[in-house]
Amino acid sequence: MKSKLLSYRNTLMLDKYLNHKYSYEDLKNLKKEYINNKPFPHISLNNFFKHDVISEVANNFPDLREQNSYKKNNINEKKFILKNIDLYPKNIKDLVIFLNSQTFLNFLNKITDIKEPLLADEKLYGGGLHQSYSGGYLKVHSDYYKHPASKLDRRLNLLIYLNKDWKESYGGALELWNKDMSRCEKKVFPTINNICIFSTNSKSYHGFGDPINCPEGYSRNSIAMYYYTDGRSDDDAIYLTKNTTNWKKRSKDDKVFNEYTIKDYLRRIPYLKKIKDLFSKN
After folding, report:
1. In 3-state terms, what secondary structure has residue 78?
2. What is the crossing angle of helices 2-17 and 90-99, to 10°?
3. Residue 116: what pLDDT?
4. CA–CA separation, 142 and 203 (whole Å)
5. 223 with 91: CB under 8 angstroms?
6. CA angle (144, 189, 250) in 5-degree steps
7. In percent, how much of the chain has pLDDT > 90?
8. How many C-beta atoms lie closer than 10 Å to residue 165's C-beta?
9. Hey, where are the domains in the chain?
């Protein structure tokens, strides 16, 4: 009886926020699509949230230039980030709390087929509200693989777009690139109620490298949620790279900056890693 009641409550919570199509759909089909999508496991879904929920979130999205936000303006990225949930409008805060709930974590586990239980990051390290104005960009990159504080393994990104009347001519599409950075295999435009979920590893290259060209008064608004596991069974080779954002060039003329040390290059040699692991066990 208790399990049935819990299941009923979970269904009610999903139904409060998600489009009926996704809150009741057989998730096996979504999982199959997620696993098989290229260039790495991902899924892009339209009208994911209920219209009234996401419309109000979009309407209340703050101007991060006027908030206590973190501004990034360098060769790799130009945008504003606000991770302090206490500064969010109430309906955005409520949505983020739902996205970190066990009910939604279970939902994500079913879609992505990640074996380990997904864990939320309530402090939203690197995530939260993201905003870019005309000229903003985010060069293609793969993400850090260990949370700097908890040391949990980063496994999943969820990006929610909140831009009404966004035209493709403005740019700003999320690009998903293949492992050798020879081509972009998927573009997701940041129109309202589009979302993209994707697995994070050392080769999940993504970003929007061209400066956006939206009119004055417009901005590219999104919510970025990152999820973790305690250990990972999918890709041991990921630990051969530095635990930081790894920026990639889309062409020979593209410009990015990575601050690597000799230690970081030595980390890429599998033989040395095996020796380190051997001494760690003894």
Report:
1. strand
2. 130
3. 97
4. 6
5. no
6. 50
7. 77
8. 8
9. 2-281
